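The methods section describes the discrete structure representation at length, but only in general terms. What matters is that the chain and its backbone geometry are given together, residue for residue. Nothing conveys this as quickly as seeing an actual entry. For illustration, here is how one protein appears when written out as sequence plus structure tokens:
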Amino acid sequence: MREKRDSKSQASPVNSDQDLDGQRPFLLKRAVIASIAFFAISFLTFGGWVHFYFAGNYSGPLLISNMFGVSEKSASAGAKPVYDYPVAGWDGQFYYTQSNDPLILDDNYFSRPAPHTQHAYIDNISYRFQRNFLPLLAFGASRVTGHEATTPLVYFVTQFLIVSLGFGVLFYALESAGSSGWWACLWGLYGGVLRPLSHGLPDPTADALLLIAIVAVAKNRIVVYWIAASALCLCRESYAAPAAFVWMLTVLGKLDWNQKYAWLGRVALTTAPGAIVLFWAFYVAYRTNIEFLGGSRMLPWGALVDWPYKAYLSCLIDDLRSGNENEVLQSTSCMIVITGVLLCVVRESKKRVAAIALLPHILLMTMTGSVIWEAGVGFFKNAGSIILLGTLLSSRHDYKWLRWILIPCLLLSIQDVYRHDWRHQAFLPPIDSTSPSDSVQPSAQVPTEKIEYASKIEVVSVERPLSDGYTGVFSLFHRDPAVVTVRVWNTSNQTWPASLPGQNVICLGVRIGNGNKLLHEMRVPLYKEVPPDANISLDFLVPVGAEWLTGKTQISCGLVHESVAWFSESDSSQAVEIEL
């Protein structure tokens, strides 16, 4: 038994061909089942979440804002914004927009400014289009399936399929190394994979492609490497660095790929990923009339890239001073994993020369700037590839200790997903308009003087959804919006100015709860100024449905002096209660 255990401990996590010939079909079958199970469970969970928080609108998780608008192609595919200006939404909206024109043939991207931005539809065209593999793949998938435009559902299915493939490959690699394939859940269930995956960001797709490229190098599959690495570099341009090292090792003869191809052929195939990313960068610069890699170089030093550990330590000190213990734990867990994996790969590179190619990428993760370390979505998302490498290495006897730092990071990342996307996620049904209202301007006056908290509020109407509700597979989770209209009178001697979200403004505050549990809190701005003795009608949306999860919905609404006080704190009659 000791000899058998020792031989397994010396096996490489992705290069253990000895004595596996008879087991390969069995391991491959298990990996396929694991990949299908991951896709089914993750996508069904995602679908339920979409119906619960976005009224079944699959463009909802892209967090599109009418600050940028929706292109005609995207609108025809059912995409709608869920945020009003000045909320900008999230990055997924830009990558989805690309999927309806991945070759930048529509001049409206940069010739017609969106209502409140320099460019139409996309915030940073050069930067976004440099990361074009996922949009290009979704474009192809939608056309193959007979769609004239890429629908949000096809976009997400494409992304989930690629990540599920990566999960299956990781499962197979771990089983081949003599470890349980289910340790792949350290990566598959990691919050830095799940959260970007559910919001349409390309990072989890890049992780899956990185894994395939690593396995291809370990197994001497140069054609597979060429395809995976080329796609990887188009997914995130920073992966050109490890691809360059693989090319250099091939040129020097350190990677011979079992000499299946002549030296010149091997060099040509390993040159392709770098050549493709450079060609694409020149094409994007030509089409957008922006300097070469202009978007990627736009942010100053210290924002996206900084000296190793500097941005992490700066943000750590800020979090300690502000008493943000949760952020301290989460960011530190990520940095511990990055450092641990870096040390392991340094040690591994002394035994396997190919591991040298991973060092630039891991080192770059220690050099990410303040933009990354200031927010959980940043450092968890960027550590996804490191979690993947740590999971792969942990199958080896020498590196099993990695699991003891991977598991806490996994649990903290899941807590982060729960906190942002489940516990405090707003109900965001689609907005029909694709341009922001002109009735409230960004220069709206912010009251700074002492406010007299005097108002009267009454419920005008509550319009429940006209349909009988969703009856599909997600009917147990589906919620539709009810429209609540209230009228507010200004009974003070002061004029309330028109408001946009922000500090010190006066707006309608809405609290949605169940019993003593607060489920959600929202703000409804005043779209015009309200003089003394005048009134204003305001509408807001409340989710209806899935009472087995939420019970009776209780709504409390009244005016609030943002960041100061609720009017009802001085007089409870200035708030109204509604039950749905």
